[in-house]
Design a protein that fits this description.
This protein is an all-alpha fold and 137 residues long. The protein is built from 4 helices and no strands.
């Protein structure tokens, strides 16, 4: 398997994990925090699904085989919103790092269309990192 396909599969696995984590946290967030965080977690889960579709299509385009299992990092079950946001921040940092590395690989092969798509995901991940960081202040 090429390094490009491996890196795209790493990103795909992270997105599959993020979908599960955010859907889980959306279900378990309670109290006044629920008003703000449940919709945020639902949006993040949906965003991860769209990112996964983009990466999956790119893997197919480059004749690779997509992973079907999520990243193996355990998802912490908690009802503590601070812990949820800390887990979300860690997840977004991992994703942004993976997409940053992926962009470097794509640049070497000259696939401008894929680069632009991944760059948009990367920028979205960076915005999510900042949003989670601000929520934890």
């Amino acid at each position: 398997m090429s390094e490009l396909i491996e890196k795209m599969n790493q990103a795909l696995g992270l997105e599959l994990r993020a979908m599960n984590m955010y859907a889980h946290y959306a279900a378990y967030v309670t109290g006044l925090n629920r008003l703000q965080l449940e919709p945020l977690f639902q949006r993040e889960a949906s965003e991860s699904m769209m990112h996964a579709a983009t990466v999956r299509n790119a893997i197919v385009k480059h004749d690779g085989e997509c992973v079907t299992e999520r990243n193996s990092k355990p998802i912490l079950h908690t009802v503590n919103t601070t812990e949820m946001l800390e887990q979300a921040l860690q997840t977004e940092v991992l994703a942004s790092e993976a997409y940053g590395e992926l962009m470097q690989l794509i640049e070497t092969i000259g696939d401008r269309e894929l680069y632009d798509s991944i760059e948009q995901i990367y920028l979205t991940e960076l915005r999510s990192v900042e949003e989670m960081r601000l929520l934890l202040i």
